[in-house]
Amino acid sequence: LAPAHIRAISPYQPGKPISELAREMGLAEESIVKLASNENPLGVGEKARAAMQASLADIARYPDGNGFELKDALCRRYGVAMNQIVLGNGSNDILEMVAGAFLGPDRDAIYAQHAFAVYPLATQAAGARGIEVPAKNFGHDLDAMLAAITPATRVIFIANPNNPTGTFVPGAALEAFLARVPADVLVVLDEAYTEYLAPADRYDAIAWVARFPNLLVSRTFSKAYGLAGLRVGYGIGNPAVIDLLNRVRQPFNVCIPGLAAAAAALFDDEFLQRSFELNAAGMKQLCDGFQRLGLKWIPSYGNFVTFKVGDGAGVNQRLLRQGVIVRPIGGYGMPEWLRVSIGLESENARFLEVLPAALG
Ligand code: PMP
């Protein structure tokens, strides 16, 4: 039998796949709207698609285990060195590498209440102790997180923007926080949604790595770059941190199509801009809809928004019967809320159309 700390884990609950709902409800797949996993409703950009398709000629071979081309592209894009980058099978993989390399029994990790579910999961899987710090206005309370540090703390996870609440900590506050974190505590700044920040909110965490050797910035190609199904993420940090992560990384953890598509997507500014604009317009569409219905929501900086319905599980079930998949977040301690991802205009409209009846 597995040890107690593994048996204590409650598994990650992904959004329901379209095919599964179609079967369950006897609905046509085309009629289903999935706004449950913070995916990019535009799909895959043309440059990424072309690169991915060209790469398929090589898939009888193993991928480049060092991901040279993608790392080279990241170096050019962000002005960092090769040895400052680790690639992941999605950024989830980066989080797990952190837990594998820096956590273990007798060590603890700090994360916020209502923060991304993988932080407690990865911490528990490593046999470490998780310290959940109460949220402030649904977001990270950085002072409380600092106060929670113990001699056994080795990792602090921060999602900015946070999922599922969409909250955001301004760059200046993060910088001040980093200056106060002890040098032997790694801060994982999870920026899965950073590309959705409005220009006025943007900050450059990668530039901070030179000053804070205990900072690891984690990002993904799953969201704004539209490549969730290919599973590509990356971490940027101090070479010593990256070296440790590479020791626990699987040898060929990113697949050939993923490496190729990500390298192309990184320079597709036009696609990124379209994704950003569609998201901003969709966010307004949904929030205007919540306002009309008298529903409360948490202002979000990501590509999703969390809104209050009372009976989250019940409303979710009624939405599912109408072929609309959103995300219940009872597992995040928010059973009265649901999270909806920003979709295409027509998908957002469909969701808003069926929502009043689903509210009961
Ligand atoms: N961090 C946060 C905050 C997320 O919301 C997600 C996706 N749900 C991830 C990391 C992981 O995404 P991926 O593994 O697809 O990069």
TrEMBL record:
Keywords of the record, alphabetical order, are: Amino-acid biosynthesis, Aminotransferase, Histidine biosynthesis, Pyridoxal phosphate, Transferase
Give GO terms: molecular function aspect only: transaminase activity
Required co-factor(s) are:
pyridoxal 5'-phosphate
User: Pfam families, from UniProt?
Assistant: Aminotran_1_2 (PF00155)
Q: Aminotransferase class I/classII large domain: from which residue to which, for each copy?
A: 32-353
Q: Which catalytic reaction applies to this protein?
A: L-histidinol phosphate + 2-oxoglutarate = 3-(imidazol-4-yl)-2-oxopropyl phosphate + L-glutamate
Q: Which residues carry this modification: N6-(pyridoxal phosphate)lysine?
A: 223
Gene3D superfamilies for this protein: Aspartate Aminotransferase, domain 1, Type I PLP-dependent aspartate aminotransferase-like (Major domain)
Read off the InterPro entries from this record: Aminotrans_II_pyridoxalP_BS (IPR001917), Aminotransferase_I/II_large (IPR004839), HisP_aminotrans (IPR005861), HistidinolP_aminotransfase (IPR050106), PyrdxlP-dep_Trfase (IPR015424), PyrdxlP-dep_Trfase_major (IPR015421), PyrdxlP-dep_Trfase_small (IPR015422)
Question: How the protein assembles, per its UniProt entry?
Answer: Homodimer.
Q: Which family does it belong to?
A: Belongs to the class-II pyridoxal-phosphate-dependent aminotransferase family. Histidinol-phosphate aminotransferase subfamily.
**UniProt-recorded name of the protein:** Histidinol-phosphate aminotransferase
The organism is Zoogloea oryzae
Gene label: hisC2
